[in-house]
């Protein structure tokens, strides 16, 4: 009887599509994390946490967001902070990537089913070389995190005992590489104490960008000395990432130059580091060296746009992704020039790519607008603050204008669901929840409409 039950459950598991497996897997990890965070050993002495707050914090960590209802540095014990760090690591690399790590360690064969799920998790169009890619991802990630942890430990050893500096170094290296934005400095301060510190700025920005460009691009860069060329995907990601960082830094530098609450109180070096860091961190990282509520409204809205674009495909970040944004810009340029094709680096993009980019952008906009409108009726906050918080949740950024700790029950649930949708991707979630579509056996006649 037991073997029969086992066969039935295995059959049900096999019937699940890769998107459904990803949704269920992340949900299970979030629940386990919430239960661990509710243990007394996870909390600082005298603290208690409600189940909803534990779920919210676990969701934020697993979805590598960084929005918090309790201050991470003071509310949780060292054990609780380690739990959060592990959730960030598993959530950033993906639970299937971590499962593959254990399979490789124990020399277990990766099944076809598992390869399909990995393909979906890494947003790949083919299974070819997927296990090799995962192996490279794990190696690159651990090496970069280790280097970042070492450099941050050395820097912070000047400010705190060596043991604490080492723990801070490891935690923040994992958090920043996985674009999570959790910090241990207490008082919801993030990295504001290091606004003009070149070492902390350079190391943290490198970790953020490394985690945000995507593992495919990272692998491409590592293979460049041997292949002497980059793929179209890598060229688009690197060029758009650089353009967004430079543009963002210039715009924020201009908007905040005279603001006494942000760049206005810093010297020239601090102004440059502050503008540059705040341009990098909306790429779904969530750390900040400037006071977010102190930014001018123009800067806050501009950061909303940067957060909406987000990181790159196959990375630890969220948003609609840099490639999607590039395709949308390319479509506009092609239309204005009267061309039928979008051409990037002398390659023509298939129409299916354009449809997918348009679908992702519209679904993301609809989700953010809908959640922001509902929050505007349940929360007593200015609309821009709610839009900022919602976009931050969807793009798994973690930047906040101070709204999250005071959210109502409905608000916390909505932001939780938004983080979950943002981490998995709106298309993956739609595929997981929607019915399977059969192949179209016919096409309707072409119709004509007037547009514009």
TrEMBL record:
Coiled-coil stretches: none
UniProt topology in membrane: Multi-pass membrane protein
InterPro entries, sorted: Cat_transpt, TrkH
Transmembrane segments: 20-39, 82-106, 137-158, 199-224, 236-255, 301-334, 354-375, 409-433
Localization annotation: Cell membrane
GO MF annotations, alphabetized: potassium:chloride symporter activity
Pfam families: TrkH (PF02386)
Keywords linked to the UniProt accession: Cell membrane, Ion transport, Membrane, Potassium, Potassium transport, Transmembrane, Transmembrane helix, Transport
Gene Ontology CC entries for this record: plasma membrane
Xref: NCBIfam families: 2a38 (TIGR00933)
Protein name: ATP synthase subunit J
């Amino acid at each position: 009887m037991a073997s029969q039950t086992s066969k039935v459950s295995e059959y049900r598991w096999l019937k699940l599509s890769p998107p459904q497996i990803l949704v269920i897997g992340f949900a299970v990890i979030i629940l386990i994390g919430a239960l661990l965070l509710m243990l007394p050993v996870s909390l600082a002495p005298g603290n208690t946490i409600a189940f909803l707050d534990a779920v919210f914090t676990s969701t934020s960590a697993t979805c590598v967001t960084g929005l918090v209802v309790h201050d991470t540095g003071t509310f949780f014990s060292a054990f609780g902070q380690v739990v959060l760090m592990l959730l960030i690591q598993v959530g950033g690399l993906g639970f299937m990537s971590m499962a593959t790590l254990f399979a490789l360690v124990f020399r277990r064969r990766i099944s076809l089913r598992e390869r399909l799920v990995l393909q979906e998790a890494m947003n790949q169009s083919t299974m070819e070389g997927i296990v090799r890619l995962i192996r490279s991802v794990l190696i690159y990630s651990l090496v970069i995190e280790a280097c970042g942890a070492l450099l941050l430990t050395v820097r912070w050893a000047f400010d705190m005992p060596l043991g604490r500096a080492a723990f801070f170094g490891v935690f923040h290296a994992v958090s920043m590489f996985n674009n999570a934005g959790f910090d241990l400095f207490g008082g919801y301060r993030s990295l504001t104490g290091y606004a003009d510190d070149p070492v902390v700025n350079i190391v943290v920005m490198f970790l953020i960008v490394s985690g945000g460009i995507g593992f495919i691009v990272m692998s491409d860069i590592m293979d460049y000395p041997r292949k002497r060329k980059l793929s179209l995907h890598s060229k688009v990601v690197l060029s758009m990432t650089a353009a967004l960082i430079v543009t963002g830094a210039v715009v924020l530098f201009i908007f905040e130059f005279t603001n006494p609450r942000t760049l206005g109180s810093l010297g020239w070096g601090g102004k440059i580091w502050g503008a540059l860091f705040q341009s990098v961190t909306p790429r779904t990282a969530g750390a900040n060296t400037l006071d977010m509520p102190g930014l001018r409204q123009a800067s806050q809205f501009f950061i909303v746009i940067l957060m909406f674009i987000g990181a790159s495909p196959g990375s630890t970040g969220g948003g609609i992704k840099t490639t999607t944004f590039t395709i949308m810009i390319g479509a506009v340029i092609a239309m204005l020039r009267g061309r039928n094709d979008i051409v990037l680096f002398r390659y023509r993009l298939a129409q299916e790519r354009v449809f997918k980019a348009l679908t992702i952008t519209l679904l993301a906009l609809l989700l953010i607008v809908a959640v922001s409108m509902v929050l505007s009726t349940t929360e007593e906050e200015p609309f821009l603050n709610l839009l900022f918080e919602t976009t931050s949740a969807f793009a798994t950024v973690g930047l906040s204008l101070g709204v999250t700790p005071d959210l109502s029950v409905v608000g916390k649930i909505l932001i939780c669901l938004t983080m979950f949708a943002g981490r998995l991707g709106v298309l993956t979630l739609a595929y997981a929840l929607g019915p399977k579509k059969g192949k179209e056996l016919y096409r309707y006649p072409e119709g004509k409409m007037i547009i514009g």
